[in-house]
Amino acid sequence: MPAKILIITGDAAESLGVLYPYQRLREEGYDVDIAAPARKTLRFVVHDVEPGYDTYTEKPGYTWPADLAFCEVDPGAYAALVIPGGRAPEYLRNDLELRKILKAFFDADKPVAQICHGALLTAAIDSLRGRRVTAHPALELDMQVAGAHFEDTGTVADGTLVSARAWPDVASWMREFLGVLRERA
């Protein structure tokens, strides 16, 4: 039976931050579930940098069904966790059930891949202290406040935690994460 991997997300997550790892991990033979605050059709977004803007822009992205609600997740049933970015982490970090899930993965030292604003979730459970991470460059101060050593580079691996800045880095992020998964197998 293939190992199971959990993706945790919500509305306004970055489309490529969710669907690239979902498809890439399935291609490698993993069984992948997507969990959200409730079982529903999620609405993702597309972020891009456009000339004349000081920050990224947001447009509607794909929709995708959540397989599970956070309250239905058994972290022990999963070998690894993926945390996409986008705006979803801003409100998801306040979800008590999700924080329990995150803590279970870090307490068990299971592989975790986070991208972009997904780092806000791991910061919310104080799991970045002393670790090397990258995230969206706008989060550098947040990462420092969380006790992390921020690196403004595409992908950073620190033990079982693999982080990436944003959607342009998804290929290197998943390549590094798959390497960690293979080591742990």
TrEMBL record:
Classification via InterPro entries: C56_PfpI-like (IPR006286), Class_I_gatase-like (IPR029062), DJ-1/PfpI (IPR002818)
Domain (DJ-1/PfpI): residue spans on this chain: 4-178
Region forming the signal peptide: none
Family: Belongs to the peptidase C56 family.
Protein name from the UniProt record: Peptidase
Source organism per UniProt: Streptomyces bungoensis
